[in-house]
Structures are given as structure tokens and as C-alpha cells.
Design a protein that fits this description.
The protein has one domain. The protein is about 80% helix and about 0% strand. It contains 11 helices and no strands. Helix 2 crosses helix 9, helix 2 packs across helix 11 and helix 5 packs parallel to helix 9.
Length: about 240
């Protein structure tokens, strides 16, 4: 692994994890969106198990750091939706190719971003949180990128509430996904060791996410959400068509 880190692909992976950790600590989402595509190109073994393990630890750090700002009702309804969508996503795996799902969700996210820019306002209600959690779990299971629906609902809320609740949401979501992989024989000791080797880079980025928190807390939540959501849509479409 030392030899890998000293190579250009290894350095690119380390840099992606540092940036992903900083973004996750600043906003509560974006870790998998930024790091997973880079690491998957460098070594497919990073996805999904090690990526989920690293995302869980970084999200747990954000959750603990701002535990008092976790909105319990939001979290409860969002996780209820995620649990509901897990079975549906598994059923749909055999209906279309992964690239087809990525294309559908990519265009869907871009459409939602466009509506928001045109003035559509999504309030963070119990029903919207449940629907966002459902769609997030569905997208995350099928494509590994499930943050945009949750982030779009939170685009008009305060930064602390968004960060804390989304981090808590992704901690539980990662545990669910890792458990499912383990039961299916897709997660083991090698995944834990690979995650442990690269995790320090993600944690380093997380520790220096204070500047990003200040930016988000100054009222820039919506801009950050729209930029990151649009970027995730572009990544999904690129993976679907390239």
C-alpha cells in the first residue's frame, strides 16, 4: 500500500479523500460523490465496502461534533424512507442496467436544480424528509450517490441543522449498507484494512473543515447545495454515457 500511495494514482486518491473529508465536514454530504469515482478508477476494490466504511467514520465525526443540532424528527422520517426504499431498490436491480439508473437520476437531479434556480422552494417538512430519504436510499443503493435528494430539501435551512442531521443520516445509512454487504459476502477484513489505510487522509480533511462550516453558516447553504448536487448529476451522467 505504501508503494501505491507514492504513485500518482495513490496521491490522487489521497487528495480526493482530503477534499471529500473537508466537504463532508462543512456540509454534511458529498463524501461519496467526490471520492468514490476517483477511487473506483484507481482501484475498484475501494468501492463499495471501503468507501462506505470511510464515509461512516467521517460522518460520525460530524454527527458527534454537532450532536445538539441533529433534528430528531427529520432524521426519523428520513431514515424511515431509506429503510422502505432498500427492498424496492434491490428488486429494481434486475430491471435496468446501472448506467440506465444513473442516467435517469442524473437528469432528475439536474431538473430539480433547475427548478430551484427558477424559484421552487422545498420546505423541510416530515413528508418531504420521508420522500427525500426514500429517494436518497433508492439512489444510493443503485448508484452509490444518494445525497442530492436530502440536500435539496435542506437547501433553505440553517447550515448546522443540515450538517448534523445529514451526517447522522449517512452514519445509519452506511451501517445498513455495510450490514447488507456483509450478509451477502461482499464485505470483510480486507475491506476494513483498505479503509483503515486511507481513512487518515479523509479525517485530515475533516479536521480542517472549519472554514467551510463558516462559509455555509453565513447563509450560503443554498448555493453550496445546488453546486454539489449539480456536480453529482454530472458525475452520474458521465458514468452512464462514457
Amino acid at each position: 500500500m505504501i508503494d501505491v500511495l507514492l504513485s500518482w494514482p495513490g496521491l490522487a486518491a489521497a487528495l480526493a479523500l482530503v477534499l471529500a473529508g473537508a466537504i463532508q465536514g462543512s456540509t454534511g454530504f458529498g463524501f461519496n460523490m467526490l471520492a468514490a469515482p476517483v477511487l473506483a478508477i484507481i482501484n475498484p476494490a475501494f468501492v463499495p465496502g471501503p468507501m462506505l466504511a470511510m464515509a461512516m467514520v467521517v460522518s460520525a465525526g460530524g454527527m458527534v461534533r454537532e450532536w445538539s443540532d441533529v433534528n430528531r424528527p427529520d432524521l426519523t422520517f428520513a431514515l424511515s424512507g431509506r429503510l422502505l426504499s432498500a427492498g424496492a431498490a434491490a428488486f429494481c436491480l434486475g430491471l435496468l442496467s446501472q448506467s440506465a439508473f444513473e442516467a435517469v437520476f442524473g437528469f432528475g437531479v439536474l431538473f430539480a436544480v433547475a427548478l430551484s434556480l427558477l424559484g421552487l422552494r422545498i420546505e423541510a417538512t416530515r413528508m418531504s424528509m420521508f420522500l427525500a430519504g426514500t429517494l436518497s436510499g433508492f439512489m444510493g443503493t443503485l448508484t452509490s450517490i444518494g445525497a442530492p435528494p436530502m440536500a435539496m430539501v435542506y437547501q433553505n435551512t440553517g447550515g448546522a441543522r443540515m450538517r448534523a442531521t445529514l451526517n447522522a443520516f449517512f452514519v445509519v445509512g452506511s451501517i445498513i449498507s455495510i450490514g447488507a454487504l456483509w450478509l451477502a459476502g461482499g464485505f470483510g477484513l480486507s475491506d476494513i484494512l483498505l479503509a483503515a489505510t486511507m481513512l487518515p487522509f479523509a479525517l485530515f480533511g475533516f479536521l480542517f473543515s472549519g472554514w467551510g462550516k463558516q462559509f455555509v453558516d453565513r447563509g450560503q447553504v443554498k448555493m453550496v447545495v445546488l453546486l454539489v448536487s449539480a456536480a453529482s448529476a454530472v458525475i452520474l451522467l458521465a458514468r452512464a454515457f462514457l
